[in-house]
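[User]
Um, tokens okay?
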Amino acid sequence: KGPHPEACDGCLRGSADAIGPKFESIKAEKPGDCVGMDVWSVRVPHVHGGQTKVIGFHDYYSTLDKFYLIPDETSESCAKALCEYLGYCKSHGVSVKRIHTDNAQAFVGENTAVQKVINEQCIRMTTISPGVPRQAGMMEKRWRLTAKACRQARITANMTPSYWWYFFSAAANIRNIMPIAGNLDECPLSRFTGQKPTCGWAMPTGCLGYPKLFDPVSKVHDQSVPCVNLGRNQSGWMMLDASTGRIYTTPHVRFVPEEFAGISVSAGGRTSVQPSFAPVQDSQGRSVALTEIYV
């Protein structure tokens, strides 16, 4: 027996389970008090750009989520997205005081681009203990829930995984205007901005829509084409014409929100958006057989 009779070397060496945290959980009393930051990766490249990385920010008080598509996980790319997020916060009168993140190489270190932005903005930065991702559990939960909503919406819309970003970002935007559990008069966006948002802009991503064409061949040609709704940006709705690959960005769209036509491929390999209530024709107006709904 040694000086510590209660200790067992074999037990201590053979079992090293994680120990529950003894520190207090992060508390936030107003927007910006603490923001979670993390990078999420996916194996499927984005159909329009090839990106596979997303950086996310989660406000602990309002629970507002903001996600940005980035080309890579370098500190420079993350810093650029961080500046964009801080600009968004500033536009709503929110000052970020603390950022909590993991020990990603792009974030930590005195000379990283992210650390430079943090120092310039006088923001306190805290990180998790190495190998203990649960200390950033809030961000991990956001990734899990948003990815789940992304998959469900994409499958419903009959779109291939390469379109994931449109459904991922839409899932976050919709969630930000959903009522908070226990307080139906508030949502994450209203808590963050102090103003109640409108929701008339919300349309299912992937649904059928007919954008107004401003450059038709003539006054007697079609004034619109069936398109897939890829979501909304600050300029308008992004409508994909699968027959040409063109994305029309316009506020002038007539939607059929219950119709998810997907992208069809004819026997000849021609892609198009074919509504269930419209005849299936090729470019010469001849009926064609569809081989599959995905591309």
In short: Confidence is low (pLDDT under 50) at residues 289-295.
